Amino acid sequence: MRTLKSKDRSRLIKAAMGQLPCDLTVSNVKYLNMFTGEIYPAEVDVLDGFVVRVREEGVQAPAASKETYDGKGAYLIPGFIDAHMHVESTMMIPENVSRGIVPWGTTTICTDPHEIGNVMGVEGVRFMLENAKKSALRQYVLAPSCVPAVPGRESTGAAFTAKEVGTILDMDDVVGVAEVMDYVGVVTDNERMHSIVEEGLKRDLLIQAHAPFVTGDMLNAYRIGGPLSDHESTCAAEVREKLRAGMYVDLRASSIIDGLAFLVDGCRDHYWKDHVAICTDDVHASDLLTVGHINKVVKKTIAAGIDPRDAIKMATYNAAREYGFDDLGALAPGYIADMQLVRELDGGKPEAVFIEGKLVAENGCYLAGDTLTEAPCLPNTVTIPQLNSTGDFVMRVPEGYTGSTIMVNVMTVSPASPILRMVVPTELPVKDGAVDISGDPSLTFVCCANRYGTGSKTIAVYRDFGLLKGAFASTVSHDSHNLTIVYRDPAEALLAAKTLQSVGGGILVAEGEKETHVALPAAGLMSYKPCAGVAEEINALQKVIDEVSGGRLTVLASAILALPVLPGVVITDMGLVDGTNQSFVPVFAL
Amino acid sequence: MRTLKSKDRSRLIKAAMGQLPCDLTVSNVKYLNMFTGEIYPAEVDVLDGFVVRVREEGVQAPAASKETYDGKGAYLIPGFIDAHMHVESTMMIPENVSRGIVPWGTTTICTDPHEIGNVMGVEGVRFMLENAKKSALRQYVLAPSCVPAVPGRESTGAAFTAKEVGTILDMDDVVGVAEVMDYVGVVTDNERMHSIVEEGLKRDLLIQAHAPFVTGDMLNAYRIGGPLSDHESTCAAEVREKLRAGMYVDLRASSIIDGLAFLVDGCRDHYWKDHVAICTDDVHASDLLTVGHINKVVKKTIAAGIDPRDAIKMATYNAAREYGFDDLGALAPGYIADMQLVRELDGGKPEAVFIEGKLVAENGCYLAGDTLTEAPCLPNTVTIPQLNSTGDFVMRVPEGYTGSTIMVNVMTVSPASPILRMVVPTELPVKDGAVDISGDPSLTFVCCANRYGTGSKTIAVYRDFGLLKGAFASTVSHDSHNLTIVYRDPAEALLAAKTLQSVGGGILVAEGEKETHVALPAAGLMSYKPCAGVAEEINALQKVIDEVSGGRLTVLASAILALPVLPGVVITDMGLVDGTNQSFVPVFAL
Q: Residue A316: its pLDDT value, please?
């Protein structure tokens, strides 16, 4: 029942009765009715950003509208809703994502500012909300639920308890509690997660799930604990189990993960599909330039055998129902006039997009203005006093250790999954009191350094990272976003650290005295540049990365090296952590 | 997102994880999944009245439940939800309707105490809520929106402004604003209806519609004004138009009106039917004894060509969504364990019914106790000082009128509809200063007398009411429930009035010095007797009515004679009223 956009009912009633002219008529369209599934010729009249009426063929409006837009026989469908995405993944600030997203027909995104939350806390979330208001795109926010993801195993820029989550939930345009990654906290009913979930439940807001591989008793307990909508299914069986348990499933195809065709197997044959929505989760600027947004996922969903009407419903009405929005996801009297004209019901680029009845994109061109009026002045969030000299990058053996070799827990990819790591105890030479990897070209050092001023850091050895030469550094390092540097030569590592500190964060490759970087001054996560600029810089950096890695690494190569919710070994600023049981693993195997 | 029943999440999580035994397992059932439409063998575990898990065949519970109920291979489906009904129409008080309704598989009713609201105001509504708590049946209440239905054209026992509606909406178990009959008030945006609707909208509650024959611009304006769910469609085209406009349609089959087979034509072929629910509106005690409740409407819906799964979804999940209930209408972890075992998916009487995991009916037997522990002591609401002698029932001609005949606006059934009336100016004899109908056996007098102490009354002439002899009187007279008496002999009318006054209201037939009545001491609308007792008394009275009317009249023959929202001429205590334009019509055509 929740109505998000306040309306002047009296004006709209007058318009419906013909006593006020509407602002806009979209004429000559094939209208897809989201309540009945019917498609019929119609004209839609809009006032104050709301649909006043949908007139079937031959029905005259009681008063002519001020303007008419000729739909030229295209289908008129609601604007798409992204049920879950992180703006930070685009590496653009909110006001700039609008230009990248809206021309593809998405008019609402439900975002989790989890990354900036970890870096800047409540003020970071507030920045996202405030900055979003400068754009045409409807940007709702969910309160990050797991900041930090694993308390006591990494240090972040902020820590959220129920109090911070409650503060965020009371802000305008906040519509739920974001992905509850700490499923262990929920199923063991720990106080932190219980109280955070409670903040959302007591406000009747959506609790978003994040439950890959969670099944059986654990899934039941997790669902009862609050989380309702999940986008992390890894296979069809998970989709089916979650739907059967009453959860919403947000089918996801991101720039990173795309198993959509398999996920659809988990719902294709269901008689009812009310609980299936669609999301992008993480999408990169270059994909927004060339591939698409929700429309791309709709296209894949249709290709996987879902009726186009159902695919569109998932991306509109079902997503709205998931959140309890009662004025989005359909076009009918009283609904917000977020709509798009599409030539076919196939996920193609729309011919026109309207937000609140205003034409905001036409044939791929964004018409809602160049939104970046001035560069925001967020503070530099990269504070790394512990990285001042090349010596700070040397991996010293423990005090008093005198052997000529030492057993090191070397990080390496797990055979279980390319995104998981394990440690392999390995005997390595000691030289001048430090570990010497110069004899094995497959080894690199990896340093994770707190960038919020605590001075903590961890240095470990990593086998087969994929870097042939130079150093690779990034402040985009989920979820704490500490500075992660992969290197052999401490001088290159120092250059990387100094440069990223000076620009406020980013992603960088250093080779000798040369460096190439993408500056991400907004919380070390986002650029202030628009979509094309960000994509161009990333593409340029990727070329350099291709050179130093023989084409093996991407700009996000180190992005999940420090993510302790992964069930494998990661490196945080506090040490090596085994995500399976959230225990520390010593750097040296002594 | 609204969760109505508070739960101890910690206990439920523990049970889900196997750390606490469940109270109940319902085993050996074919489970209809309301999210996917699948049917598969399962067992359902319940704790504290909530579903903890649904185990598919072969899945062991992590801990055994305290009790097991063998479903013997029946289908397990959610308890039915009646999306709209008036408890007063059963002529039972809330605690007694449970016994009549629950054995048919209905576990939740969403009720509009509009009748008692008109008689007793906010205190009447409070009585319904309090009394309902004594029963097993989940009884939610909507705040009556139109008390009185037509201000200034009838006098009632109470008048609700936004203040009274707000007071009711803040009471426990109140879930919406009830049927907004004053559609003219909404589409003209008058202050009274605007502010009453606003009370519901600002609390994110359902605004229930009541819009027979409302179409086109008027329907759009009405929808924008707030009302969402309508049960008053009169034909398939209305059903289709309302669904297309984004309204919910509650398919209705009541004890009075049943056009269900035709209404289904308005949605049968729709690809999606999410916005279709089911209701009974008005159902009589005798029907509850013999015919059924929501299950009967489900049966008719299936007979009209709806897939049984869809019909059940309409009566469960869709109704819950209409109201925004997120813990009713399905059986999955965290949902309230309101459920029924049915041999077939056909609307038949269930083999067992559970409310909050407690067995409350089995094979038609109610097991939740004889709920009427003591007769409530509601005050006598029949105060009629204006009816003291036979002279008070004489229809006098206007002061100073000296003619031997007089033109009278005689009420008679309209050719447009058997429930509508018109007036026909007719010349009648005058005798002793009063209208004389003794020469025409097709004529009767009809008197509508305020029963709230104002002393007002109207006497008119009615042609072809259907009464062959005696007087017919009732305090069930929508919506003001003033005393309505149809008679020829003032002595019989006086006997009727005196008797109904002494018993606190009811329905009565007087013939000579003999009278037969059903006493309805609860607000002049309801008996304190249980279902069988009420049905028996009504049947006995009906036999007498059959005698005096030659089988033509029912106990509710006068129930809508005084209903000024009808588009025809009615009689209120203030005069004859033309509902079409809500103007007075003179009794004499002078």
A: 98
Rounded CA gap, A228 and A186, in Å?
13
The answer for residues whose C-beta is within 8 angstroms of residue B377's C-beta and 6 or more apart is none
Are B53 and A274 a contacting pair at CB < 8 A?
no
Question: Which pLDDT score, from 0 to 100, does residue A372 have?
Answer: 63
What pLDDT digit, counting tens, does each position of A380-432 carry?
999 999 999 999 999 999 999 999 999 999 999 999 888 899 999 999 999 99
A523 to chain B nearest CA, in Å? 33
B1/A204 Cβ within 8 A: yes
Cβ separation B52–A224 shorter than 8 A: yes
Our CA-based measurement puts residue B445 at a distance from the nearest CA of chain A, in whole angstroms, of 42
**B457-463, strands of its sheet edge to edge:** B434-435, B417-431, B405-414, B457-463, B443-449, B483-487, B471-474, B506-511, B514-519
Q: Given this model, what pLDDT does residue B454 score?
A: 96
What is the number of CB-based contacts under 8 A between chain A and chain B? 164
Comparing C-alpha atoms, which of A507, A497, A589 is closest to residue A548? Answer: A507
Are B10 and A37 an interchain contact pair (Cβ–Cβ within 8 Å)? no
pLDDT at A433 over 90: yes
How far is it, in rounded angstroms, from Cα B473 to Cα B486? Answer: 6
What dihedral do alpha carbons A216, A221, A222, A224 form, nearest 10°? 130
Six-digit token string for A29: 């369209």
CB-based contact B223 A333, cutoff 8 Å: yes
Q: Which residue from B minimizes the CA distance to A275?
A: B35
Q: CA-to-CA distance for B113 and B481, rounded, in angstroms? A: 13
- Residue A502's CB is within 10 A of a number of other CB atoms, namely 11
Residue range B18-22: mean pLDDT, rounded: 98
The Cα A210–Cα A228 span in angstroms is: 9
Q: What percent of chain A has pLDDT over 90?
A: 92
Mean pLDDT of B322-348: 97
Asked if B16 lies within 8 A of A224 by C-beta distance, the reply is yes
A582 confidence band (pLDDT: 50, 70, 90) = confident
Report the 10 Å Cβ neighbour count for A312. 28
Whole-angstrom distance, CA of residue B61 vs CA of residue A333: 48
Preferred mutation among B8, B13, B34, B313 to probe A, highest tally of A CBs within 10 A: B13
Q: In this structure, what DSSP letter does residue B315 have? A: I
pTM of the model: 0.95
**Could you tell me if A268 and A306 are in contact, meaning their C-beta atoms sit under 8 angstroms apart?**
yes
Q: How far apart are CA A495 and CA A306, in angstroms?
A: 51
Interface test with B, best of A6, A11, A35, A40 (most B CBs within 10 A): A35
Tens of pLDDT, residue by residue over B87-141, are 999 999 999 999 999 999 999 999 999 999 999 999 999 999 999 999 999 999 9
Task: Please name the residues in contact with A468: beta carbons below 8 A apart, sequence gap of 6 or more.
Answer: A548, A549, A550
Contacts of B321 in chain A (CB under 8 A): 321
Give tens-digit pLDDT for A241-294.
999 999 999 999 998 888 899 999 999 999 999 999 999 999 999 999 999 999
Question: How far, in Å, are A143, A146, A160, A585 from residue A181 at the CA level?
Answer: 13, 7, 14, 22
Is pLDDT above 60 for A1? no
Residue A370: the pLDDT is 63
CB–CB of A272 and B35 under 8 A? yes
**Residues of chain B positioned with their CB less than 8 A from the CB of A206:** 1
Name the one residue in this structure whose structure tokens are 């036999």: B543
With an 8 Å Cβ cutoff, are B3 and A36 in contact?
no
CA distances from A80 to A137, A259, A288 (A): 11, 21, 15
Q: Which residue type does A128 have?
A: M
Angle at CA of residue A577, ends A575 and A580, nearest 5°:
175
